[in-house]
């Protein structure tokens, strides 16, 4: 499968269908050959290319049918977790730890009634969509006057036992991928909303702090302002009294001094 470990593809491209079918067949042949793979095989299976895509399906991780009872699921989980446990695979402990965490997550998902119910809803929707797809294919072939087999529509590839299960499996993977993509989008949106809300709170807190500081300074300077005003008022009253104009003195006429006549 050409899906990357970091991303979740929306769908399996048509040009990769043959490769996908080949991979699916290979996986199922291995499962038939040995229902409990060796530790190395299990680690390789769980960490294969596109593992982040396949491992979204907990039934695929534990290699069980969705109808398996919870008791049997628990038994399968215990056997598989022992196989891939890092302590049992010290020569490849890092990859074993990753595989162990994948197995543990799958079990936690199926152990919880709510999350298991959601997984079963995905399986049921995959079946319904597959049945609808088969019906639409038949309608299209009939409308085009095409036949499969002699004199009748016959069976589509998806109507054979293996083909039908394969189609449901592919649709199940697509639905799990869609569900994971929506979860990530909601998580990203929630983070952004929380960040924006926190920024608004910090801005409001900073504004409130400035207003409190201004009010404190205003109150602390109140008495100083009152004293300054009183001093101004007192100063202006005394200065007005001292600034009253004094009456001008009348200038008196002084005759010139007489000089002694010289002979």
Quick summary:
By secondary structure, the chain is an all-alpha fold.
Strand content: under 5%
Which radius of gyration do the C-alpha atoms yield?
45 Å
Terminal residue distance: 152 Å
What profile does the largest beta sheet have? none
Number of helices: 9
How many β-strand runs?
Answer: 0
**Can you write the helix and strand succession as a string?**
HHHHHHHHH
Tell me, rounded to a whole number, the average pLDDT.
Answer: 78
Share of residues in helices: 55-70%
List low-pLDDT spans: 1-12, 149-153
Q: Which geometry do the CA atoms define?
A: elongated
* Class from helix and strand fractions: mainly alpha
Main features:
263 residues; mainly alpha; disordered N terminus
Description:
The protein is mostly helical and 263 residues long. Helices cover 68% and strands 0% of the residues. The chain is built from nine helices and no strands. The chain has helices spanning 17-33, 39-46, 51-54, 58-62, 70-84, 93-111, 113-143, 161-220, 222-242. Helix 7 (113-143) packs across helix 8. 16% of the residues are buried. Residues 1-12 and 149-153 have low confidence and may be disordered.
What is the element layout, followed by pairings?
Blueprint: H1 17-33, H2 39-46, H3 51-54, H4 58-62, H5 70-84, H6 93-111, H7 113-143, H8 161-220, H9 222-242
């Amino acid at each position: 499968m050409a899906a990357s470990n970091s991303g979740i593809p929306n769908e399996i491209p048509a040009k990769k269908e043959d490769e996908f079918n080949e991979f699916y067949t290979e996986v199922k042949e291995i499962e038939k050959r040995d229902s409990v793979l060796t530790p190395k095989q299990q680690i390789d299976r769980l960490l294969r290319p596109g593992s982040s895509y396949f491992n979204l399906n907990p039934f695929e991780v534990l290699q069980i049918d969705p109808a398996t009872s919870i008791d049997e699921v628990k038994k399968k989980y215990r056997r598989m977790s022992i196989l891939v446990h890092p302590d049992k695979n010290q020569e490849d402990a890092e990859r074993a730890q990753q595989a162990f965490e994948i197995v543990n997550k799958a079990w936690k998902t199926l152990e919880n009634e709510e999350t298991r119910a959601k997984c079963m809803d995905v399986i049921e929707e995959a079946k319904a969509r597959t049945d609808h797809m088969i019906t639409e294919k038949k309608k299209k072939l009939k409308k085009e006057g095409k036949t499969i087999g002699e004199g009748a529509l016959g069976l589509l590839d998806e109507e054979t036992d293996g083909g039908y299960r394969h189609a449901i499996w592919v649709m199940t993977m697509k639905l799990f991928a869609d569900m994971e993509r929506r979860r990530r989008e909601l998580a990203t949106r929630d983070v952004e909303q929380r960040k924006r809300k926190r920024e608004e709170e910090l801005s409001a807190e900073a504004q409130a702090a400035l207003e409190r500081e201004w009010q404190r300074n205003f109150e602390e300077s109140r008495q100083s302002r009152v004293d300054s005003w009183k001093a101004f008022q007192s100063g202006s009253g005394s200065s007005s009294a001292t600034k009253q104009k004094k009456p001008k003195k009348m200038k008196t006429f002084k005759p010139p001094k007489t000089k002694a006549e010289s002979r």
